[in-house]
Amino acid sequence: MTEVTPVPVSAWLIRVARLRVTAGFCVAAAAFWLARPSWVSLGVGAAVALVGEALRVWAAGHLEKGSEVTSSGPYRWMRHPLYVGSSLLGAGFAAASRHSVVATIVVAYLAVSLLVAARLEEATLRAKFGDAYDRYVHGAADSSPRPFSAVRVRRNGEVQAVVGVVAALAILGLKVLVFSRG
Q1: Please, which residues have CB within 8 angstroms of residue 67's CB and are 6 or more apart in sequence?
Q2: What confidence tens digit (pLDDT) does each residue in 18-76 have?
Q3: What CA–CA distance (Å, rounded) separates 22 from 7?
């Protein structure tokens, strides 16, 4: 077995990562406040967001956090399917909001937070799994035949994300109703 040496992670990455959730709630509050969705923007945005959430559910159904380098499901084709799904979610909500400031803050938040999360995750996986992670990154890892599991989806907390997506779309739908009556 190869000895794994820890990968140094810069202090600013850790600070930004700690602020990610709080910043996300602030971005969401501002986005809901400023959003001026229409039925068309909500429909387009919801379609994109639901594709993003479907990718996240698929990834969560294959992921065994902290115990292995996952290489089944969407992990066969991309290193960070949860983050790709989150990016699609953000793009969907930005489109649904029909507001350029919302789109700008959502894209900026996602660009910073997901870049930081990916870098920290990669450092952690490299430190924990060493050569196995490096083989995965270089496409040399064997793909596992693991089937999708709804139990893993629940264990990985993705059910709460699904509820959050539905709630966010419902809030935007209420905004359409409120602002279309005037």
Answers
A1: none
A2: 888 889 899 999 999 999 999 999 999 999 999 999 999 999 999 998 889 999 999 99
A3: 26
Distance, in Å, from the CA atom of 27 to the CA atom of 93, rounded to the nearest integer, reads 12
On the CB side of 84, CA atoms within 13 Å amount to 14
Please give the model's pTM, rounded to 2 decimal places.
0.88
Phi, psi dihedrals of residue 140, rounded to the nearest 5°: -100, 0
DSSP-assigned letter for residue 65: T
Alpha helices in 35-144 (DSSP H): 39-60, 81-97, 100-129, 131-137
Count of CB atoms within 10 A of residue 62's CB? 22
Cβ–Cβ < 8 Å for 145, 152: no
**What is the set of domains in the chain, with CATH numbers?**
11-180 (1.20.120)
CB 125 within 8 A of CB 66: no
CA–CA distance, 2 with 122 (Å, rounded to integer):
18
